[in-house]
Design brief:
The complex is a heterodimer of chains A (922) and B (110). Chain A is built from 28 helices and 21 strands. Chain A is α+β, with helices and mostly antiparallel strands. Classes of the chains: A alpha+beta (922), B alpha+beta (110). Chains A and B meet through helix 2 and helix 3 of A and helix 2, helix 3, strand 1 and strand 2 of B.
Chain lengths: 922, 110
């Protein structure tokens, strides 16, 4: 710092300057503070004039920063105090006139109005006089703010809201992990070990996340209900309380069979009309009685299962002695724990790691190389959604930016038309800052109104999302406009005011006053205004291009997905689920007989060509994966085991879906799979053949399947790969065992002639003829199932597509506006040219070239922006790269064409100007 | 008919400081005067608030001097006590004397 002329900290000066009254009064204040600062920096001996020694001491540098600190301290004490007093006592400072010597009168403090209030009224009046401008800017801002509002409310509900449990951040989800399956369930024996071996948790609960559909017998027939098994303490872990009755007790886990049940609120409402008398009554499921002991409240959600929220009708306590709870390798359980107070996730993970390695050591064949992964319950369900929303938000956030640029252009044009008004105000003594403040107030009014419009648009958008995209994100049904969303909307409106208002306000007040007054105002547009607006157009074009590229990539991905061959035919195939009442058919033979009868009857239905059975339909959840290996190449250790997907399927399954057999033969109906025997036959798919029998003919070879003990399966056939989880996935190693006639629930596939849905009624009838109590559900065509898997990509394309269309429209209007303005500004020059014989074509070309140059620059910038940003979306794209040239070129051409159309009207207008009229108007 | 003008304690001290400083009564100097003579440390913010109040009450007037290079080219605001101000000070002094009558012993017992 120069010793010659130390100055107070610049930023503090600016802030103070903003706060103190205008004119000499404020100046004298600033001068005093400046002087005081100097006194503190420079010791009295160094100062020429006699001044006050404010205690400048210490070394030069120390004095300097002490002084600076003191000066900064004056910002709140002097600045804020003055700001407050000015706002409240406006007239007080009005009357403290800078003119010297004038006697002062007592200030009138009658007005409750403030500077700000006066600005507001003035702005409202002036905006009312320009309804077109007001409507346009409010609408455009409304779109921009609405987009922000919508994204934020979605984010707020889906990700930010805490889970509806007490202290939800202490709830922890536990996955069992191995190299090949990082997110898996664990066995009940493991759960017990973790419970006993750690003290990081207040309580640990478990559940079987697999839906068990059971048959409830009632007076009006059989009904399918959705049930889950949970540990008796799981409700306690969550901190939930029943609405009626009680929760499970520890002893409920040892009844040997279900014994007790807790109902969900929805089921209680539907089935029992919310009658509290249901407590204590007995219900029969699959022939087994259970006593209803409790009902959960309406807002309760059980966070088990694979999606949130999981709908269930009732919960049962898991039975420790049941088959599913025995055995170290019976990995049926998901674990949910509540951390003790003060224990962190990391500490819990560390403790669990110790237990996990102990288990791995003690049971190397089944648990070797396994560990556990802990995460918060929120992360488990909403982690992926957060990423999705962030990326979508990033894309959509281009819209408010475009809106700001658009409105800034409008404000700029308006500022030009008000130049004489601004010039007069400045000449009459208003400070430039004052006028700018007034102009910003106008922007503020527009932004607030736009915010209101935006809220309405966001609400409508939310409703649309809800009806068209229910499965897209968890908790989507709950999106609403709440206080936080309102605050965010308001904040967005506030932030946008300087973005679109500051530059036009500064430009609009930057003038040589006399010149402007002389020129009469409007013609003082000048080159700089034009270039600023041109800049805005370039910005809008580039942002729009980025949005459109995103949209284009999504659309192409979606089209690619649609055209993928999933390996099976979905035309004319009907699917349904059939569930046997197991209490009626307990023995395996009996069930086989029933399924056989179902098969026979369905074949007899006219129009049905093929009947197939499978335990799990394609295009649904992947299903159980079991460890297999080629007999000749057993895995060296438990950690090297690789899983494959298991399916139980009849020959009819392959026929109905048109899955070709590549080698060998299909499974015969009578070749039932008996786990009790140690051998059987199997059909494998290509992927499994590649993975486990690379480079050799698998027919006749032995595939070993690991159950409680290894089972040898002879490979009798190889089928083609199908995309089990739909387009966009890769084929997975799958092996098919003969349809397990011993199952109580199977999916049935019917290949039909004609529309499959026409067969639905007849199919139900046929099944009912076998047994009235067999329940049929989930009747739909395979084509519908396929369409469902394409839902997300379709939605993404539509969602982003709509916004990009809006952006394109906004930009086109912006281009048109700038060119029209240009023509108006240069109408004199153009008419001169026309009068001197310049061709119409030449004029039009001049305007077009000007417009398209801006568009071209905008496209170039947009392309680079899109290249950078598209990489983030790669995981959503299918069949194309993020830098797909076809999309980029196509979108650019499309944008250029639309822009060209926007340029044509002003160009034609320019070309057809009547020179005589223009001259007359001047 | 003017209403009674009452002066607070700080307001009285500020008026007296202005009178003491005669031609040189501007913001910073008043602060120094209050500190040196009156033993009272006043922040600039408090002083300006008081000055504005006094001006509002009509007991001081201000005028602006020429821009001074040493303080960023900003002028000083010089203050003068008006006749009303003198009257108010006189009244205050009279009141003070009347109220302090007979309290010499107590006040000197420090």
């Amino acid at each position: 710092m120069s010793k010659g002329n130390p100055t107070p900290p610049r930023l503090a000066s600016v802030l103070l300057g903003f706060c103190v009254p205008p004119g000499s009064l404020g100046d004298s204040l600033l001068g005093d503070l400046h002087e005081a600062y100097l006194n503190r920096v420079t010791p009295a001996s160094d100062r020429g004039e006699s001044g006050v020694d404010e205690g400048a001491s210490g070394s030069g540098a120390e004095a300097a920063w002490r002084a600076a600190l003191w000066y900064w301290g004056q910002v709140p004490r002097v600045g804020v105090r003055y700001l407050f007093r000015r706002v409240v006592h406006k007239n007080l400072y009005r009357s403290l006139d800078p003119n010297p010597g004038r006697p002062l009168g007592k200030p009138t403090r009658n007005h409750a109005m403030t500077d700000f209030g006066r600005d507001l009224r003035y702005s409202a009046r002036s905006l009312r006089r320009s309804p077109g401008f007001l409507a346009a800017s409010v609408l455009v801002l409304g779109i921009g703010i609405g987009a922000v509002s919508l994204m934020f409310s979605t984010f707020n509900t889906v990700v930010l809201q805490p889970l509806p449990f007490p202290e939800p951040d202490r709830l922890v989800w536990v996955w069992g992990s191995t190299e090949s399956m990082p997110r898996n369930t664990i066995s009940y024996s493991d759960v017990v070990d973790y419970r006993d071996g750690t003290d990081a948790f207040e309580s640990i609960g478990a559940s079987m996340p697999f839906l068990r559909t059971r048959v409830l017998m009632g007076d009006d027939g059989a009904e399918q209900v959705r049930t889950y098994f949970v540990s008796a303490n799981l409700f306690d872990v969550l901190g939930a309380s029943p609405q009626v009755g009680r929760l499970f007790l520890p002893e409920d886990e040892e009844r040997g069979q279900d014994g007790v049940a807790i109902l969900s609120h929805a089921f209680w409402q539907l089935r029992y009309g919310e009658d509290p008398g249901v407590i204590g009554t007995t219900i029969i499921l699959d022939g087994v009685p259970a006593e209803v002991v409790g009902v959960m409240p309406a807002d309760f959600v059980m966070p088990v299962g694979w999606v949130y929220p999981t709908t269930a009708d009732m919960w049962f306590p898991l039975q420790r002695s049941a088959g599913y709870a025995l055995g170290r390798s019976n990995n049926n359980f998901a674990v949910l724990g509540r951390l003790r107070d003060g224990v962190s996730l990391g500490q819990a993970q560390a403790q669990m790691d110790v237990v996990a390695s102990g288990i791995a050591e003690s049971y190397p064949e089944v648990k070797g190389g396994s560990w556990v992964t802990l995460m918060t319950l929120h992360e488990r369900f909403f982690g992926p959604a957060r990423t999705t929303l962030l990326i979508l938000a990033g894309i959509i956030s281009l819209v408010p930016l475009i809106a700001c640029a658009n409105v800034a252009s409008l404000f700029m044009a308006r500022a030009v038309t008000r130049r004489s008004e601004m010039a007069s105000r400045l000449a009459l003594g208003a400070s430039r800052a004052r006028v700018i403040r007034h102009l910003l107030t106008e922007g503020f009014v527009v932004a607030l109104t736009g915010g209101a419009v935006g809220l309405v648009l966001a609400y409508l958008g939310g409703e649309a999302l809800r009806s068209f995209a229910p499965g897209m994100l968890p908790r989507l049904g709950a999106i609403a406009i709440d206080g936080r969303v309102l605050a965010a909307t308001l904040a967005a409106a506030f932030v946008m005011v300087p973005l679109f208002g500051l530059a036009p306000a500064i430009r609009g007040t930057d003038m040589k006053i006399a010149e402007t007054l002389k020129a009469g105002g409007e013609r003082g547009g000048g080159k700089r205004d034009s270039s600023f607006r041109s800049l805005l157009v370039v910005a809008q074009v580039s942002l729009s291009l980025m949005l459109m590229v995103a949209s284009g990539l999504f659309v192409r991905s979606f089209l690619n997905l649609q055209s993928v061959d999933s390996g099976f035919r979905t035309e004319s195939v009907l699917s349904l689920n059939a569930l046997l009442p197991t209490f009626k058919y307990e023995a395996r033979d009996e069930r086989e007989q029933v399924w056989g009868e179902v098969d026979r009857r369905l074949r007899m239905v006219p129009g049905v060509r093929t009947v197939g059975f499978v335990d799990r339909l394609p295009l649904g959840a992947a299903g159980p994966r079991l460890f297999v290996w080629a007999a000749e190449r057993p895995p060296a250790s438990a950690a090297e085991r690789v899983p494959a997907t298991r399916r139980f399927a009849s020959k009819g399954y392959f026929d109905a879906l048109g899955i070709p057999l590549l080698a060998g033969r299909h499974l015969e109906e009578q070749e039932r799979f008996q786990a009790s025997e140690a051998r059987g036959v199997v059909v494998i798919n290509e992927a499994l053949a590649r993975q486990f029998f690379p480079g050799e003919d698998p027919l006749g070879k032995t595939l070993v399947l690991e159950l409680d003990r290894p089972v040898d399966l002879e490979v009798v056939g190889v089928s083609a790969d199908i995309l089990e989880t739909g387009p966009g996935s890769d084929p997975v190693s799958t092996f098919y065992l003969p349809a397990r006639w011993g199952y109580d629930m199977l999916s049935v596939l019917l290949k039909t002639e004609g529309d499959p849905l026409d067969m639905a009624g007849a199919a139900r009838e046929a099944i009912r003829e076998v047994d009235d109590d067999i329940t049929v559900s989930a009747v739909q065509t395979m084509q519908a199932r396929l369409d469902n898997t394409l839902f997300q990509p379709r939605f993404r394309s539509a969602f982003v597509g709509i916004f990009s269309l809006v952006a394109l429209i906004l930009s086109s209007i912006g281009i048109y506006g700038v060119l029209a303005y240009f023509v108006r500004q240069h109408s004199h020059e153009i008419s001169v040219r026309l009068a001197l014989g310049s061709g119409v074509g030449g004029i039009a070309r001049m305007v077009l070239i000007r417009g398209m140059t801006l568009v071209g620059v905008g496209i170039l910038m947009g392309v680079s922006g899109a290249l950078a940003g598209a990489r983030l979306m790669q995981s959503w794209l299918f069949g194309i790269g993020a830098a797909d040239p076809v999309t980029f070129v196509g979108v650019s051409l499309f944008l250029a064409t639309v822009a060209l159309l926007a340029c044509i009207v002003p160009a034609l207008r320019a070309a057809h100007l009547d020179p005589a009229e223009v001259m007359r108007a001047e | 008919m003017r209403k009674e003008t009452y002066l607070g304690e700080l307001e009285q001290m500020v008026l007296m400081a202005i009178l003491q400083l005669k031609e040189e009564a501007y913001g910073l100097n008043i602060v120094r005067e209050l500190g040196d003579r009156g033993g009272r440390k006043v922040s600039p913010g408090a002083l300006y608030a008081t000055l504005d109040r006094l001006e509002g009450k009509g007991v001081v007037t201000s005028r602006f001097g020429d821009p001074v290079p040493g303080r960023g080219g900003k002028p000083r605001r010089y203050l003068t006590v008006t006749p009303e101000g003198i009257t108010a000070l006189k009244k205050a002094r009279l009141a003070w004397h009347r109220l302090v009558e007979g309290l010499d012993e107590i006040l000197e017992q420090q």
